[in-house]
Amino acid sequence: MVRSAYSSGHPSVGVGAGNTPAVIDETANVNLAVSSILLSKTFDNGVICSTEQSVVVVDSMYDDIKAEFIRRGAYFLNEEEKNRVRAKMFVDGRLNADMVGQSAYGLGRLFGVNVDKKYKVGVFWCL
């Protein structure tokens, strides 16, 4: 089905059963969208691949969405922190297994990023 979508001539986003992107546009209920994404990501700290791995936000919603993520306990990494994470995300060309099931605080400790225990998730915000 993904192959068909990609060859349809229309913009498409194809994924498997998990690791899906969430797309938030002007019609979204911001509170519900952000709450649902955070609940999905935190109930088991992402152990299984059934949660959103990325969020695509239309430009006009950017400020509202980011503010809601912050209000609900998301920690946005700065550029230096992103580089620390990138440096330890892979070990010998493979995803670092020590990341699996870690809280935002645990991931911060693993990556050398000071993340307070109050934060629910860590976010790489890319434009």
Automatic annotation (TrEMBL):
Aldehyde dehydrogenase domain boundaries: 17-71
Q: Name one GO molecular function term.
A: oxidoreductase activity, acting on the aldehyde or oxo group of donors, NAD or NADP as acceptor
The Enzyme Commission number assigned here is: 1.1.1.1
What keywords tag this UniProt record? Oxidoreductase
What SUPFAM superfamilies does this protein map onto? Answer: ALDH-like
Put simply, this protein is called Acetaldehyde dehydrogenase / alcohol dehydrogenase
User: Which source organism?
Assistant: Monoraphidium neglectum
